[in-house]
Amino acid sequence: xxxxxxxxxxxxxxxxxxxxxxxxxxxxxxxxxxxxxxxxxxxxxxxxxxxxxxxxxxxxxxxxxxxxxxxxxxxxxxxxxxxxxxxxxxxxxxxxxxxxxxxxxxxxxxxxxxxxxxxxxxxxxxxxxxxxxxxxxxxxxxxxxxxxxxxxxxxxxxxxxxxxxxxxxxxxxxxxxxxxxxxxxxxxxxxxxxxxxxxxxxxxxxxxxxxxxxxxxxxxxxxxxxxxxxxxxxxxxxxxxxxxxxxxxxxxxxxx
Amino acid sequence: xxxxxxxxxxxxxxxxxxxxxxxxxxxxxxxxxxxxxxxxxxxxxxxxxxxxxxxxxxxxxxxxxxxxxxxxxxxxxxxxxxxxxxxxxxxxxxxxxxxxxxxxxxxxxxxxxxxxxxxxxxxxxxxxxxxxxxxxxxxxxxxxxxxxxxxxxxxxxxxxxxxxxxxxxxxxxxxxxxxxxxxxxxxxxxxxxxxxxxxxxxxxxxxxxxxxxxxxxxxxxxxxxxxxxxxxxxxxxxxxxxxxxxxxxxxxxxxx
DNA sequence: CGTCGCTTTGATCATGATCAAGGGATGTGG
DNA sequence: CCACATCCCTTGATCATGATCAAAGCGACG
Lengths: 256, 256
Fold this sequence. Notes:
Two copies of one chain form a homodimer. Helices cover about 40% and strands about 20% of the residues of chain A.
């Protein structure tokens, strides 16, 4: 990672969260410093380890700085539902940290690097910096919006539509933190994990991906996903008027 | 509605939100007054009308004081997914009010009474009253937790499990605001709406309800739902260790 | 009394689960 | 350097859950 002579807003050193925010709202030097401050110190969690364990106390929030994690719920008979995929720049610990004990587990899929934000510090930040508070609330909102979209996937979309939507969402989200190219990215999940995310069985995920490939909408070589026909996929998945494109922070908050 | 000589915390006059909160955290007189203050003035929205329209600006939050509303998303071909059911005491407008325009519509299912909280007032409340801010964040968390549970429903539960889970969730939520008896309540949704909530077709909702009836788990006469075997339903739906039972506000917040 | 909205039931169909087996890469110990 | 194991992907055959289509029943209400 080279240190370039860039505006601090967009420099790599600022970290994925700050870069993501800088795309939707302009941050003052003081705010940049605050964001940097709450994102230290960091610690690493290695592949397969739990970041938050269901039923355990969780007195802090985290920012995922590097790697990929999943939040999931396991039913008594072993069926698993992945609630969301956590990418660099995402907050972890909402809503867990507001409950006595965490409701769901969060596990690192790859080796990860996370920053810890103690609750008292978070709450005092809310009190002292109204605009930063607004921005954090906006982040919570984005998470809620993604849940809502995910719900629509599972409730009312067919397997092809779900997978298409999933591939596009991942493209856009990875791009937001500079981890995807114009039309391609490295798929961070196995087909089993995709199945647990979309409520599908592994063979059916596989067949659905093949169908999308046969239709020339995507190309998949190894873990590399190439979106060959963005418009086609978007039409299929009803992605057009989608949430991510409208995830603009409201002026009321932007101006504090 | 009679005015009884009760502790203001639990009096009907306090409104459903305050009553709901009083169950999980003790509120000071000042906090009670603050809560009362943000819940005025009120306005009514009649059955079938939109409270928030998808794509429209939404510069405020609402508290639903009376009636039932749904948040939903409609796909281009008309399929509808209900994202959540809003009951008295619930906040409306999260996450809509943090975006330029609302992402989803919210419509009144019955005649409703709502209180309006302008965003500036909300943000200044966050700044001035840390504990109330914490409590509001906790409310957002509850909403996120319900989304997560709903996701598990749609992704990994069968039709019977979904319906069973839905009936129990409604019982518990209605009880939290004093709108259900020990084991029964008035179902506020038609079978079509239940279908759009659970991702099922109307005939299948009907057959599933019949199956639960035949198995002696519930009784349904008209709009009255009677849970005849709570334990049986809970086991079927994996409701046991569920979110609502652990929706206790964390001590860090309760103490401010 | 007739209409409208909702529920109920039946028959058929299809989406996607399940079961089963093989294939291919990557890694590890002998 | 090879045997073997593991993890993941792929494919096929069968099965079942739940959708769709169709129609009738049934209150409530004007």
